[in-house]
Structure formats: structure tokens, C-alpha cells
Amino acid sequence: MSDYLDLFSARTHARIMALRLLYQSELTGRLVSDLLADDAYVFKNEYEGLCQEPIGNSDVMRDCPNFDTCEYRLFFDQYGDEIDSYSLDIANGVEEDKGAIDELIARASEHWDISRMPVVDRSIARIATWEMLRNSPEVPHSVAIHEAVNIAKEYGGDDSSMFVNGVLGEITKLVVEQKASV
Predict the structure, then answer these.
(1) Which of 87, 89, 102, 116 is the most buried (most CB within 10 A)?
(2) Does domain 4-42+79-181 sit in CATH 1.10.760.10?
């Protein structure tokens, strides 16, 4: 594996970066723009100390022989200091349209108050809903849902992907109904 990021498409990576920003924004109560201004979103990883092994019983350390292929290091290296424009579009768009997005999520998720949803699931659903509301030919509803479900499998809980899939399926119906009534 030459680069951990190669496992993801650029758009998937952008969605994951947006998820990180939205998650951090929600947990800290700070605006996305404030997180960006302070570089608070950057994953600082101090793996250097973890990527050394003692030689025998001494205090002398040597670099890990697996450093170049270490999945742990490669995972954290993919989250450098750069955020692409699509990540910013998503995070800022979700933040700007949160009222309308949350209203759709609340209508689609019967018996679930949006505030009771896990933050990761809620953020993933917001990202996909924002993409569906944009009605971009580049991101059909089915692609937004598929991406959200896959991200939920990776970053959510055991039932997150099923929950996100169900909510977004209902949101698709609501968005189509809204378009028909306009």
C-alpha cells in the first residue's frame, strides 16, 4: 500500500474531512470558520515516539522496521494540514443550511429526536442531506446515500450504517416531494 489515502476517492476523503470539522464544531460549540482560523481541525499526531522500539533491555531506541508501511502512521498522515474546497463547501454548506437539513432529518427519522442521535450519525446524515438538497448532477441521491452509508460503517457504531441508510432513504422521498410541489 503506497498511500493510505489511495483507498479513498477524493470526494470520499472530502466528506470525511467535512465530517471531522462538523463533529468538532458540534462538540466544541465553535463555528467551522473559527476552527479553520485556529487550525483547530488539524490532527496532530505524535507517532514518532510510538514508532520506535527499544533495543534489548536498554534505553537505546531504533526506528520501527515497519515505519514505511505502518497503517497507523499512514492513517494519520492522510489528515495533514490541507483541506480541499469540497470539504469546505460541505462543512460551510451544512452549517449554513442546518435548520432546513435538520428539519428534513427530523421528519425522516420517526421516533428519533435529532438531539438524541449520535453526533457522528447526525453529521453524516447532514452531509448527505446537504448534497441531496444541492441537486448536483455530479452527486445523485444514490451516490450521496452510498457514500454516507460507507462512511457510517467506518466511523459510526454497529447500527449506524442501517440507521443512516433508512433516514436518507426517507429524505430522498421528501426531497422529491418538495421538488414536485414547487
Answers:
(1) 87
(2) no
